[in-house]
């Protein structure tokens, strides 16, 4: 495919995703139809189907756009590279910046609200966002034997889960008005926890 054609395809895909975001957030998952997305995006329904197989595929692409795609752009690599002292701090700061973004929070609220009627949405989020992030971080922990982490996958879950729970408590459940806690304190303590084994040896 020629570069110009590829650019047009990417622009059309982004146009569809922007329209889909508007409709999903305004109408909820159940009431969102491809007709509504097509109208919001200014494209034909057939164009949407040429990019995304169905509504679930469209929603998955939307989740990846506001989460994992940003992580990939941040890393610039398929794998995490660098010294733990720097990498873990940057990852935590970036992660909290991404998931505290209003677009992301709005999407997360939708997933939580629809999870009872549509458990597949929560499962889709878990598979396409949480699982990928956990696997990526787990591989990094495995590549750094100096951290002496016995269970890299569990530690990756602890790292990611701590950041997610912080955002849920502060942003989704309005904890920043009742039990505020500075993000820098959370990040510093979490990174310190990950590095304790290395610090003891040095």
Keywords, please?
2 domains, Arc Repressor Mutant, subunit A, globular, mainly alpha, 202 residues, 80% helix
Describe this structure in words.
It contains 11 helices and no strands. With 202 residues, the chain is mainly α. The chain has 2 domains: 1-53, Arc Repressor Mutant, subunit A, CATH 1.10.10; 67-201. The longest helix has 29 residues, at 3-31. The protein starts with a helix and ends with a helix.
Secondary-structure map:
Elements: H1 3-31, H2 34-41, H3 45-51, H4 55-66, H5 68-75, H6 84-99, H7 102-114, H8 119-142, H9 152-172, H10 175-178, H11 183-201
Helix pairs in contact: 1-2, 1-4, 1-7, 4-8, 6-9, 6-11, 8-9, 9-11
Query: Low-confidence parts, pLDDT < 50 over ≥5 residues?
Result: none
Largest sheet: none
Topology order in helix (H) and strand (E) letters: HHHHHHHHHHH
N/C terminus separation: 53 Å
* Shape field: globular
Strand segment count: 0
Task: Report the β-strand fraction as a percent range.
Answer: under 5%
Helical residues, percent: over 70%
What's the helix count?
11
Structural class: mainly alpha
Mean pLDDT: 87
Oligomer: single chain
Number of domains: 2
User: Over the alpha carbons, how many angstroms does the gyration radius reach?
Assistant: 19 Å
Provide a quick synopsis of the model:
80% of the residues lie in helices and 0% in strands.
